[in-house]
Amino acid sequence: MVDRSISDKLFSSAVLLILLVIALTMFFPFYYVFVVSFTSPVEYLRKGLVLFPTEWTLTSYKYLLANNVFVNATAVSTFLATVGTALSLVVTAAGAYTLSRKRLQGRRVLLILILMTTLFNPGIIPPYLVVRELGLINSIWSLIVPVLTSGWYVILMKGFFESIPEELEEAGKIDGASDIGIFLRIILPLSLPSLAAFGLFYAVAYWNTFFSAILYINKADLRPLQVVLQMLLIDSSSSSSGEIANQMSSEISIPTDTLKMAAVVISTVPILLVYPFLQKHFAKGVMVGSIKG
């Protein structure tokens, strides 16, 4: 028994040490980006590797927030994350609630069609042709309309609506409420955990819009934050990044590594701040699912 106890302690200590090393390895890049963003450009150029700056400064953040290119890109991404998320939730919730009602004619056919969109990817060319025919090239709506909803999210939210007792809907009809009134006054208030979860998914997707912006957007003033960030981070010798680097350097100064790190922090912080406020809704959604089941 004593030998086993000692071996168990050694094993637990070894596992703990390995997990600690892995955690530090994963945490170090975030720490390094954060520290360098607050480091004076002069100190960073002098030392090269800064683990703890002797002088904390907001110089890089002031440069970015005073730059028209970066501020405009942040405004575009904010618009996408707010307006796009709101519209996506409306379309997804309305579609999921409609499909959750068994009295809907052609319900199975619609579900099969929606399911097919999750199984087969059309690629790049068909969506581009659709966006072009709709006249949305170089329009901010080209980053919202093609991805306004997701078939997988509709199916998942449909399951959530089906878990709500039908007696509540019948009680609303007895009180004289219409289908829209029942949806707005009864179903949606009970669906806050689901809406919060999918809202976060949509917000992260819109905030990280990148590839579709490269396909559909050619105007510099409509580029979202992730595109500008990519142009700022990659080698300035290339044509695309050279354009943004020269445009920024003409207004403030030549981008340095501290400036790049500050841009990464600014593009990451908003999502990190939103998640804690929605975490309680996730927990509530788990409780509702366990009770309904």
UniProtKB/TrEMBL annotation:
CDD domains: TM_PBP2 (cd06261). It is found in: Cell membrane. It is a multi-pass membrane protein. Residues 74-278 form the ABC transmembrane type-1 domain. Keywords: Cell membrane, Membrane, Transmembrane, Transmembrane helix, Transport. The chain crosses the membrane at residues 12-34, 69-97, 109-128, 140-161, 182-207, 258-278. Pfam families: BPD_transp_1 (PF00528). The keyword Transport applies. Its main location: membrane. Belongs to the binding-protein-dependent transport system permease family. This is Carbohydrate ABC transporter permease. It comes from Paenibacillus baimaensis.
